[in-house]
Write a structure and sequence with these properties.
The protein has 13 helices and ten strands. By secondary structure, it is α+β, with helices and mostly antiparallel strands.
Length: 364
């Protein structure tokens, strides 16, 4: 998903300018840290069917642009996760593919949280007329999955990794963890194949960065300092990609000067070449039900990677540009199937985390 958008505002005098913000930057950092502790914290249920508990862990899942375009409700023993179409990104995600994939990521976290409490779970897509992913909870002694323990540690790490390969046994463990009915994962660790996918990333990124509608949409979801990030509790905080926080007035003024295709492409080339490999998630059919399956598979992959000391980040540009998506499908030999998501993985540093809105804001 487009959880990887970050603006290149981190060089020279801009870093000094950020550091010179004095009390403003300090208060913003304190606001962000307080929101961070509230967001990425462990919770226990307080009642048998505690929707707040389940939703808390569900919302810690990866999601496109960190728009958190989801709603949660409980009827009896069925939890429904529904799309929130007021928080869409039509330029980056014109057919709502990433929105549904994000629902799948949240569904996987929610089911892991439910099994931690002994519930057996079964999930199914409810249909296009009133789209939702329904999860039935049955108290039959569901077994806790170790992937749950990685939820609070997982992050989309938008940084350069160490460039070291991942051993075959670990690759097999990642592949097994990502098994979800209706979706498969293609692992790419050959340098020549990585370069081939990188070419698609750069071509798609250039088209997006040079598209005025895409730039406007992206800017609307950027949070340039801790104060802004803490107030919104959504969107893409610049520090999460290693950039210094700047007052929004200044950051918006320089955005068009620094957010260029060349700068972005150089950054993504370094990041992808520093990765151990790429995971391409490919569903059986091109419809919302299977987009959700792709999201579930990618979330499971990221959680297992986290358990194993690896970092992950999405590089989805080629699957967001329709023409290049079909070309990528052909290059990867997918037989016309849609490549849903692309994730790079490897060993790298921890980065600041994104925030989430309070669970009360997303529960019906």
């Amino acid at each position: 998903m487009v959880t990887r958008r970050d603006v290149l505002i981190g060089a020279g005098g801009l870093a000094a300018l950020a550091a010179g913000g004095g009390a403003y930057q300090w208060s913003g950092a304190r606001a962000y840290e307080a929101a961070l502790l509230e967001t990425w914290s462990h919770r226990d249920p307080v009642e048998l069917h505690d929707l707040s508990y389940l939703t808390h862990y569900a919302t810690l899942a990866a999601n496109s642009h960190n728009t958190q375009a989801w709603r949660f409700s409980l009827a009896g023993t069925t939890v429904s996760i529904k799309p929130d179409f007021t928080r869409v990104t039509p330029s980056a995600d014109p057919d709502d593919h990433h929105l549904y994939a994000s629902l799948g990521c949240a569904a996987e976290n929610l089911m892991l949280a439910a099994t931690r409490q002994g519930w057996a779970v079964a999930g199914a897509y409810a249909g296009d007329a009133a789209p939702a992913f329904d999860i039935d909870l049955t108290r039959t002694g569901g077994q806790q999955n170790p992937l749950f323990d990685a939820i609070l540690e997982r992050q989309s790490t938008r940084a350069e990794y160490d460039g070291e390969p991942v051993e075959a046994g670990l690759l097999s463990a990642l592949e097994r963890a990502a098994k979800v009915e209706g979706c498969e994962v293609l692992l790419i660790d050959d340098p020549q194949q990585i370069e081939q996918v990188l070419d698609f990333v750069l071509a798609a990124n250039t088209r997006q960065v040079e598209n005025p509608a895409f730039r406007r949409e992206l800017r609307s979801w950027l949070r340039f300092d801790g104060r802004q990030a803490a107030a919104a509790r959504d969107g893409l905080y610049s520090a999460c990609s290693g950039n210094p926080p700047l007052p929004p007035l200044i950051a918006n003024a320089i955005f068009d000067l620094v957010f260029t295709a060349d700068a972005e492409n150089d950054k993504y080339a370094r990041q992808i070449r520093s990765s151990a490999g790429l995971a391409v998630f490919v569903s059986e059919r091109d419809d919302p039900e299977h987009w959700i399956a792709a999201g579930r598979a990618s979330q499971r992959f990221a959680l297992e990677a986290t358990r194993q000391g690896l970092r992950t980040a999405f590089v989805n540009q080629p699957v967001e540009v329709a023409e290049l998506r079909s070309q990528l499908s052909a290059a990867l030999g997918l037989g016309g199937r849609r490549p849903d998501l692309i994730m790079r993985f490897g060993r790298g540093p921890a980065m600041p985390r994104s925030l989430r809105r309070p669970v009360e804001a997303v529960i019906d």
